[in-house]
Design goal:
By secondary structure, this protein is of the alpha/beta class. It has 2 domains: 27-185 and 361-398, Periplasmic binding protein-like II (D-Maltodextrin-Binding Protein, domain 2); 186-358 and 429-478, Periplasmic binding protein-like II (D-Maltodextrin-Binding Protein, domain 2), CATH 3.40.190. Helix content is 36%, strand content 11%. It is built from 18 helices and 12 strands. Helix 6 (194-200) packs across helix 7 (211-223), helix 8 (238-246) crosses helix 9 and helix 9 (264-281) crosses helix 18. The termini are far apart.
């Protein structure tokens, strides 16, 4: 059965209206053609032969006066990211077709990764091509002129990103200019271990699931001897921070940043953090939630010791991998074990509908000024990004999430595992997608409420004081 353009078309339509500027085995993709310049490069790129596995064209060779080159590329397609292997495959295809090589320095996305990237730019160690956030996390290197805009690249390579819907390409909040070409979007939702629910006599949440129902279910799950919520509040409180605040708001005002902890928006942030504190006091998080790592609480969820896991679409790959005897080999998937995992909307509260979700197209490929100004690397960097963002490659990465492609291909359900299909079904009921406000309130602004979450939930620091401290840091960044 086919879900024609189910995820991609739906999410494109939703994001056109509401987006704010935030594995399974599949057939090998056809690659993009080499870039077309307004002025020919020193040596024109000859067309490449067709690949062995497909009938579609591989990327044409990109040569310079000095011959094949090596470009440095950094992405977040690493670790348990479900697209890590897709990325490796696409890079290998581009290398084979062009003769160029990639020095890959990819790493899993977290705050340390973000800091590393900013430091690399500050020290002149930035890569030639970077897959990174398109929001405020990129402001430092955007303001420093260290990346090249899409418009500037198109002045020399007119077809660059021409297969994308420009309306869905996020502009930098620093200056309103578009730099990053997106590949796949994201959503954040609540994963469910249905085996735990069954053992506790709790029904699978539906599209009308409320906060009060969630609290009642968590109590039943706790009484049955399980941890209701798998979360490491001392390590990764990000998703709970985001949704707890969103639950006090609506998609129309979620991206507002408060001017003070006691103004309307500030009070919503405080109320959201106090809801997390209430969950902690009820004992709905693991006993070691303040000292555990995210990996440890994730293992609790996949091992059937916790019921709910709030995370992003990228976590689908990790859950599927936990159901394989060999995490790197999809053929070893235990379909029975995977059948006990599902995904649904975060419970709604107040004026936020349960089906209002956090999501969007918040990351993309940048070409750095360093590569652009290198005559040997310019065309190669453009060719690489065009290949990685082509109509053939993007669907492999987007899968059950979203893309900015003008012509999103039909989705064949048979190509996806059971959890991915459930995610597609969930996305068919989404009423809105709103970017993550934490992507605007970034860096040191979040320390008092992210790193400080343990102090808040145990009562050592009031939620109001923590929010105000973050706001004060944010105001300093604006000066």
């Amino acid at each position: 059965m086919k879900l024609k353009k189910l995820a991609a078309v739906l999410m494109t339509a939703i994001m056109t209206i509401s987006l704010a500027g935030c594995g399974s085995s599949a057939p090998e993709a056809a690659a993009a053609d080499a870039p077309t310049r307004t002025e020919a490069p020193a040596a024109e790129a000859p067309a490449a032969d067709k690949t062995d596995k497909t009938e579609t064209a591989a990327p044409a060779e990109t040569e310079t006066a000095s011959g094949p080159v090596e470009i440095t590329v950094t992405t977040t397609f690493a670790g348990e990211d479900s697209n890590a292997q897709n990325y490796k495959d696409a890079v290998a295809q581009w290398e084979a077709a062009t003769g160029n090589t990639v020095s890959d320095t990819s790493a899993t996305s977290d705050e340390t990764f973000k800091t590393r990237i900013i430091t690399d730019f500050e020290t002149g160690s930035e890569p030639d091509v970077l897959f990174f956030f398109s929001g405020a996390d990129a402001n430092d290197f955007v303001n420093a002129g260290k990346v090249v805009s899409i418009d500037d690249i198109r002045a020399e390579f007119p077809e660059y990103a021409s297969n994308m819907n420009d309306d869905l390409i996020a502009a930098s909040p620093a200056n309103g200019v578009k730099y990053a070409v997106p590949v796949n979007g994201y959503w954040e939702a609540m994963f469910v271990n249905t085996a735990v629910l069954d053992a506790a006599g709790v029904a699978m949440p539906d599209a009308g699931y409320t906060w009060d129902q969630f609290l009642a279910d968590c109590q039943k799950i706790k009484d049955a001897g399980f941890a209701p919520i798998a979360a490491a509040l001392g390590n990764i409180p990000h998703y709970w921070w985001e949704f707890a605040i969103f639950n006090q708001q609506t998609p129309a005002n979620h991206l507002n940043i408060p001017g003070a902890a006691d103004d309307a928006t500030g009070a919503q942030w405080v109320a959201g953090l106090e809801d997390i504190k209430d969950l902690y006091e009820r004992g709905f998080f693991p006993d070691n939630t303040l000292s555990a790592t995210d990996d440890e609480t994730f293992a609790m969820f996949t091992d059937g010791k916790a019921a709910f896991l709030l995370d992003g679409s990228w976590k689908v790959g990790g859950i599927v991998g936990s159901c394989q005897s060999d995490p790197e080999d999809p053929s070893t998937l235990d379909t029975e074990k995977l059948s006990h995992f599902d995904v649904t909307y975060f419970p709604g509260k107040g004026n936020r509908k349960t089906t209002d979700m956090i999501g969007g197209l918040s990351m993309g490929y940048y070409i750095t000024t360093k590569a652009w100004e290198d005559p040997d690397k310019r065309a190669a960097a453009v060719s690489f990004v065009e290949h990685m963002t082509s109509d053939a490659v993007v669907p492999l990465f987007a899968q059950h999430t979203a893309s900015a492609l003008k012509n999103a291909p039909a989705v064949d359900e048979s190509q996806f595992n059971a959890l991915q299909v459930k995610a597609m079904s969930m996305m068919s009921g989404v009423t809105s997608l709103t970017g993550a406000v934490q992507d605007l309130f970034n860096g040191d602004c979040r320390v008092s409420t992210f790193d400080g979450m343990p102090e808040i939930v145990v009562g050592n620091v009031s939620a109001a004081d923590a929010v105000q401290e973050g706001i004060d840091v944010y105001k300093d960044t604006l000066e």
